[in-house]
Amino acid sequence: MKKLLRFLLICTLTIGLSACESNASNPQTTGNADADYLGKYLCTGITLDGLTMNPNGKWLELNADGTVTTFLTEEADEAEWKLEGENFTMTIAGKMVGAGTLQGNELSLEMMGMEYTFVQEGTGQDGQEASSSSGSFATFTCYGNLYAVRYPTDLFQQDPAGLSDLYTEDGVKGWITKLDTEERVTEWLAGFDEKETNENVQDYQTMEYTVAGYPARAIVYQDAEGWHSEVIVNFGKDMGNETYSMYAAYIYFTGDTYVSVWNEEIQGMINSLSIDG
User: What are phi and psi of 154, to 5 degrees?
Assistant: First the structure.
């Protein structure tokens, strides 16, 4: 009997140790540790209340420790991510800040009223590859290269007569210029607000976002003279040179045709803004 008990005890210990070794060599993995989903995802689309915004330069990265690094504004932020099946969630301090689906290489995410689409970097489907391979562009420089924007040549042409900076075949004119004092920036931004209550203004729309790391304000409206689209990119300081001062970039379109500043082509132009030096 003692030999039988000793034998059963040895068998029990052996099975227990084998189970421990098996667990040690095959640790349980969670969705956050799945290497297939880790890495950087490039933003390929953004919509807000049906309006299309430019996704260039925005991304997020899923890290193996369960954190996600996002670059959707002018600086990087961090949250936590979780994947259950195809359901993707982002939380900060336990509070949900974003939800969507992760299917294959594509992540759809709703966050703060905005809908984002991301594609995993390196899959050959990201927005940067797509944008670089479609259409042709030219560069317009403001005041001796204070800043520059790229515009699609299938939509805009430079005006040789000098009546505007750019124009379209259907008569829309555009100006790529600057505001040269801090006071003027404040005055023109106040003018944006005044147009909202002007009885002669119809179809007023406004939006605040970020361009090249700087706060931007855009408005679209219609009056007796036609449609108007205006954008002010506020640098917050003089970004000019010895010849010209520049506290803000100002981009303006007007004409009988509705050309919105959140039109995909115009958003691409505005978000391509680069400052000399």
Answer: -80, -10
